[in-house]
Design brief:
Number of domains: 2
Helix content: 25-40%
Strand content: 5-15%
Strand order of the largest sheet: 1-2
Structural class: alpha+beta
CATH architecture of the largest domain: 3-Layer(aba) Sandwich
Largest sheet: 2 strands, antiparallel
Distance between the termini: 35 Å
CATH superfamily of the largest domain: HUPs
Shape: elongated
CATH topology of the largest domain: Rossmann fold
Amino acid sequence: MVLARRDIGTAYHLAVVVDDAAQGITEVVRGADLAPATPLHRLLIALLGLPVPRWHHHRLIRDAAGLRLAKRDDARALRTLRTEGATPQDIRRTVGL
């Protein structure tokens, strides 16, 4: 894993463990697609002497077309869906809950 490079600055894995510790994060909830990164995060936390949070990885929430709902994929926020008139039941149905 790349932790930092001169041309891109600090990489995600190092940044996320330092940022979580700085914010006092004790519970980390992420999608199952990020579960493979957890052992590396635990190692970095141990090496840096940071507090160890608890992790939970949930199944990915997908839209009607099967695409994951994620900010990095420009998914609309729940607030936007509600403003557009979607009910909680509509949203649950859309994501398969």
